[in-house]
Design brief:
Cyclin A, domain 1, mainly alpha, Cyclin-like_sf, Cyclin, protein kinase binding, globular, about 230 residues, 7 helices, Cyclin_PHO80-like, two-stranded antiparallel sheet
Length: about 230
């Protein structure tokens, strides 16, 4: 299984990363990746500050909540959040609305478990799991866990475990009303104004294809068997 750094295009190295906007991808991916990158940076800065203060007091290491431990990796994956979101959208056939609802789930997690922070060690697993659950709630047709595992760079067994963990952490509160959905869309659009774009995010369902999935990634900490082949 290739790592994120092993992306290739028929044997040729890929060109430097292109922005989501330049690739004509849904605007929700751009604003969501920006918000998550800021959240991760803020949380990791907080952890560093607390660690330095505790070191000065000889009080040991920072102790955070363990609610998100199942989603933690030993090291941060090399693939960026924008590229990871792009990959999920491109290959899973999910609608743009799934990313909004996936964000709702992550936000609910942080409010229900405020002592557990979203960091570079868990954000990728949280994303692929949240979007997958959202697609099951929103889309009439969606890929199964094996496909999401292949796209997300984890084993099918691990993704099954992550899905169950997410559901229990949310107390199975995975329904999102139209009012809540619109409020999160509005919040994301306000963030776009702050970023200087000031455009509305997509709410319509947009079918995609997965028959050109040519590259593999892995965000697992250990080498795993090759992922299952896509079945027709």
């Amino acid at each position: 299984m290739l790592t994120a750094g092993d992306y290739s295009n028929h044997g040729r190295p890929l060109q430097p990363e292109t922005s989501l906007a330049e690739l004509n991808l849904p605007r929700v991916l751009c604003v969501l990746s920006s918000m998550l990158e800021k959240l991760v940076a803020r949380n990791e800065k907080l952890i560093d500050i607390l660690s330095q203060e505790l070191d000065g007091l000889n009080s040991g290491s920072v102790r955070l909540g363990n609610s998100l431990n199942t989603f933690h990796g030993v090291r941060a994956p090399s693939i960026s959040i924008p590229k990871y979101l792009e990959r999920i959208y491109k290959y899973t056939n999910c609608s743009p609305s799934c990313f909004v609802v996936g964000y709702v789930y992550i936000d609910r997690l942080t409010h229900r478990h405020p002592d557990s922070l979203v960091t570079s060690l868990n954000v990728h697993r949280l994303l692929v799991t949240s979007v997958m659950v959202a697609s099951k709630m929103l889309d009439d047709e969606h890929y199964n866990n094996a496909i999401y595992a292949r796209v997300g760079g984890v084993s099918n067994a691990e993704l099954n475990k992550l899905e169950l963990e997410l559901l229990f952490l949310l107390d199975f509160r995975v329904m999102v009303s139209s009012r809540v959905f619109e409020s999160y869309c509005f919040h994301l659009e306000k963030e776009m104004v702050v970023n200087g774009t000031g455009m509305k995010i997509e709410r319509a369902l947009t079918p995609k294809a997965m028959d050109d999935l040519e590259t593999e990634i892995s965000i697992e900490d250990k080498q795993s068997p090759s992922p299952p082949q896509i079945v027709e």
